[in-house]
Task: structure prediction
Amino acid sequence: MTTTTTPPTTTPPSTTDTSPPPTDVPPTSTTPPGPNDLVLDRPSVQPGDALSATGKGCTPGERVTLTSDGERVGGAYADGTGAFTAAVEFTRIEAGRHTVVADCGVRLTGAVEQVVTSSSGGHSGTLVVLVFFVLAGITVIRFP
Result:
């Protein structure tokens, strides 16, 4: 009885790219905020999303009023170091870039993109087809 053995085959290393697929996440800025920058915790919001603004350079204990397009969107008081954090709430939903201004004796500015999405459910097309078949069925039953 003869036994044959085959040597193991070796596979050359793969040369395919193993880097992760690209994503649609925008790059974050590595530039530190300037002295008159209002830092917003996200670059864009949809209606109902929470948005927070942070800034510094105010007089300690000073009232900070946040406005956008002339409307008040938030407020806070500066802490002992002159820094503050406040919630930003838009009263109007308007797609596009909005500048948020914090006023506490000094004016700090930041910008956020307000995104409004819509969905077409396609219910009207389904309704038309349903009405057509109902009318066709009534016609067949009524006029044999």
